Amino acid sequence: MLEEAAAELFLEQTYAGTTIGDIARRAGVSRNTFFNYFSAKSDLLWVDVDAGLAVLPATLADCDRAAPVTESVRQALLRVAAGFGPGRVPWALTQYELMATSSELEASALARFLVQVGLVHEYVGARPGQAALADLAGRAFSTAVVAAAVAAAREWAAAGVGRGELAGYVDVAISPVCAGFHPVLDRVQDS
Amino acid sequence: MLEEAAAELFLEQTYAGTTIGDIARRAGVSRNTFFNYFSAKSDLLWVDVDAGLAVLPATLADCDRAAPVTESVRQALLRVAAGFGPGRVPWALTQYELMATSSELEASALARFLVQVGLVHEYVGARPGQAALADLAGRAFSTAVVAAAVAAAREWAAAGVGRGELAGYVDVAISPVCAGFHPVLDRVQDS
């Protein structure tokens, strides 16, 4: 309801020109009610993405711990991506120009990016036998693999109606990162 | 001069509590003069980083075009990193907490990140025999390799006075990314 009200207003008067008060009024609720659901106006752009990403911690926790850590992370990211089909392109990825949002959208994008990097890094560091890897290589892997997945999501969103499934794009983007870090991060387990 | 005035003021009254007018006044210049040198307050945090990154386009252009593209990018990023020794840690990386800047700092960080990704991606796409790679894999590589370099810079800045040279950190972080993408991006040249 708040999402629909926001969508209408952003299209009518741009993202920047729309206040939280405008959105609450259009939806017929109070500002306090808005803040029961969202912590910032930019959250509205990310509803779909945030819902999709929310499963990452549980997905990582479910991974086979006998597999190399790079492979576990790859599988977890592909499972998260599998939630996004060709008809479910999040608003933050497609409404970029239209809503004149770029600078605030970028800041809210980075905040989300850093959360996912932190989750992957925590997983890499917490794996049995991986404690010593909560270090530079683990941080570089976590950052690079999530960055590659984000690059894939942007290409996918830009690909138009024939885009197919997000997971295929993410696979092409992240598999080389995982392959490159496998000999570095999985040395402990292989020995 | 403007940098020194800003440094004093940010420490005295925080980044958020300091206006461009305050900085110009302390430095004894007009606001117009400020804007001759900087386009935003956040630019002041990035003076050292921006100066270091400014050499990336020329460094990429100078790379040996007979080498694999992933190796050329690796060499170029290491050459840029070589400009940062243990005593030259940019302000944006060290004054994070102190200046209470995080959200604006993150937005200005992302803008710089995307510029560097764009430069690397342009280089990858423009290499002879690489035209078909100005695509998903090229974009994923460019994003991941720059993200890994940024992760390295953060680890380096956090490492304290015994940190040594930035280039060593960047090498550990980006080499696996380059190794992972080598068979994907350099297939055209090898065949």
UniProtKB/TrEMBL annotation, chains A, B:
UniProt-listed SUPFAM superfamilies: Homeodomain-like (SSF46689)
DNA-binding region: 19-38
HTH tetR-type domain ranges (all copies): 1-56
Keyword Ribonucleoprotein listed: no
InterPro entries the record matches: Homeodomain-like_sf, HTH-type_TetR-like_transc_reg, HTH_TetR, MftR_C
UniProt xrefs under Pfam families: TetR_C_14 (PF17754), TetR_N (PF00440)
UniProt keyword annotations, A-Z: DNA-binding, Transcription, Transcription regulation
GO MF, one annotated term: DNA-binding transcription factor activity
Superkingdom to which the source organism belongs: Bacteria
Positions in coiled-coil regions: none
Gene3D superfamilies from the UniProt entry: Homeodomain-like, Tetracycline Repressor, domain 2
The protein's name in its UniProt record: TetR family transcriptional regulator
Lineage: Bacteria, Bacillati, Actinomycetota, Actinomycetes, Micrococcales
